[in-house]
Known about the structure:
Among the domains are: 2-36; 448-559, Immunoglobulins (Immunoglobulin-like). Helix content is 29%, strand content 22%. It contains 16 helices and 20 strands. The protein has helices at 2-13, 15-36, 44-58, 63-71, 103-108, 158-173, 210-216, 264-267, 269-276, 330-338, 350-353, 383-386, 390-401, 405-411, 420-442, 468-471, and strands at residues 122-128, 135-139, 145-150, 180-185, 190-192, 197-199, 205-207, 228-234, 239-240, 286-293, 296-303, 448-455, 460-467, 481-488, 494-503, 507-511, 521-529, 534-535, 539-546, 551-559. α9 crosses α13 (390-401).
Amino acid sequence: MNKIVFALVISLMCPPLVFAQQAARSQAGEASRHAEIKEKETSMYADFFDKNVYDRVAQWFYIPRTLRKIFGVKQPALDVNIYDEVPDSNFFTNRIGRRDMSAREIIEGPERTAGPDTAGSWLITKGKFEGISPGFFIKDSTGNEYLIKFDPPGYPELSSGAEAIVSRIFYAYGFNVPQYTVCYFDPKILTVWEGATYYGKSGFKKKLTLERVIEALENVDRTKDGFIRCSASLKVEGIYKGPMSLDGYRKEDPKDFFRHRNMREIRALPIFASWVNNHDIRKGNTLSTWVTEDGAGYLKHYFIDFGSSFGSAGDRVKDLTFTHEFFLDYKSILWQTATLGLLRRDWDKRWEKNEYTVEYPSAGYFDNLYFVAQRWKPEIPHYAFDDMTHGDAFWAAKIMMRIRPELLKQLMKAGAYSAPEAEEYLYNVLVERQRLIGAAWFSKVTPLDEFVFRPKAQGNVHIEFDDLELLYGVTEETPRYRYEITHAGHKGKEVALQGFKEFSTSELHVPLNAFRASGPIQLRIQKYHSKTNRWNPPVVLTLAYDSSKNEFALAGIWHKDQVA
């Protein structure tokens, strides 16, 4: 008993000691938690085989997926809230999709430094010769660590400019990205750490020497004064846990609630990527790190390596087939075999249309000739991209469209292009492509957004909204809408409480007094599409009656993929 009393007295007299012990136990707990999450590995070759070969065959043995393909039915994304939006998570943070952002805010968003310090020496700690873009891991004189990569020989500024701009655009979308900086350095500042290694072509680890570094830099373009331009990405914070799957999830991660192929922000990646022509979206270009905030640890997921955007393929300009075919495209192989290679697709003629030249080496092979938004393809297929619904695509397209041309104009400065005409060319291609993507995906749904819901007396409601086709000027047609009121009746079967009524303005006054006792009702609004001569799938507003306030409240929004 005396020992217990003594312990209590000590704890009361020395609370900092108790709290320190608790903090130590908490930190130890977090350390053990992150230790349970093993570091994963992948490679370009593993990504290629898994997605182009294994998954393409294995999918037909998964019966539910096969049936969905046969009947053209797609499962809605699972991480969407009742207002048809993606909430903030360790994958995605709503930024420009939720609020206006300035160019300065976007450019400085992921930045923690001004880039590598070129006044002092750089210590190369590791060589990176695998993958598309070779480079080095360095530590500058301030102690910050970077991965530096170089532009393809003969195409200065091609990949480094693309990476600087596109990483910031992805940041504005809402993704986690590292800091990328365009940097010029004198190769004389390079030194090599005695323990530095690299993987040779044989796949075996070798000792990295200054001679091997100089050899690797022989083909890198230099300025007139001998400087080398590079893309420098700052090491992200946290403990590295390897790449993130675009299909499954980590069972040991308590915040990984859904298979990634069922997450809207993953499914919609081709929409985000198609605007900037980033064809190299795959597992190998993601990164997960264990971070601790406010005493709690979790995995934070990044998208990395944007050097294969615009007209760049990372180590060269894009080939004709890029973004039109997968790296291993079975449909294309069958077509070429059946036609003996004699019939050419339209996009095969792009080289002729461009008069067999790349006009601006820093822009590469990037244009909108034969660009069709719904047919744009990354280099590697994924289940998640196959499962993308029109609702997923609409969500991504409306975020992309919020980067207005006047904002994009300022973001282009991050590429540090030496030729103003090349920057202007890229800007014009992006502006035109943005409009093409918006027009394509807005036409697949009823593209209404930014609903303002005002309850009125006697159970009436007044609704205002933005028609995104009109807001962004992707159509000049006079709009034509209709609405109906429905209720989920017996066993969920839909019952029409009020038939269709047409209107043509962005304001709608709906008398709902007669439906107060019906329980939650649905207001289904559709837009007429003149090109298809059909009504688009509806946007469904769920309305719930609040008896305490004697008014209806907006309880949900859903952009449907099908009319039925």
